[in-house]
Prior knowledge:
Elements: H1 3-32, H2 44-50, H3 60-80, H4 85-106, H5 111-120, H6 123-133
Amino acid sequence: MTPIFKNILAVLAGIVIGSIVNMGIIMISGSIIPPPEGADLTTEEGLKAAMHLFEPKHFIFPFLAHALGTLVGAFIAALIAANNQMRIAMGVGIFFLIGGIASIVMLPSPIWFTIADLAGAYIPMGYLGWRLAGAKK
């Protein structure tokens, strides 16, 4: 397998596995911290309409989903990559950061969550995923 093909596979695997982790956490979040009474979270419109009912506890699992999805994705990508592991892992972090920005544009959230999410869940987790993989630059 050529290094280029292996690196492309690493990025794709990191994105897919990171996305699975992200969605898995989001899917179980409602059973651990129930949504506000009367909130319809099945549609984007319902979520926007209910956003004012959310308390800080309701943002724990979205942050964890973003951070852990990115961490696992970057870790997997760094493990698989043939070379340039740090760049590959950070590329996965940037991919998820772009998704986080798109999410915040589509679904406005409190400013404190926006700052915490964008500053802490993507680039730092991409870097940490690379470090945990023990990969070289």
